[in-house]
Design brief:
By secondary structure, this protein is an all-alpha fold. It has one domain. α1 crosses α2 and α1 runs antiparallel to α4.
Amino acid sequence: MKTFGIILFYAFLVICVTVIFVTVIKTKRFFAAVFISVLQGIGSLFAVNFIGSFIGVHLAVNAFSLAVSSIAGTSGVVLLLLSQILMQ
């Protein structure tokens, strides 16, 4: 079961990176797209922690989770949630 979770994790990671590249190419404003993606990722990380406190979902806010949410945006936070669920 763990190998299926790892395969699913990497598949979702490839999808997230593809979505980011397509967004950057379509907007043609690299720094604006990256800045908006970083803000959305960090905002969604803190929103998951705030809303998750009511329903029992928690993501640790540390250097790794901030880096993933900053680099991959909202899809990175979804990736963190999926990896937490699959690796339990």
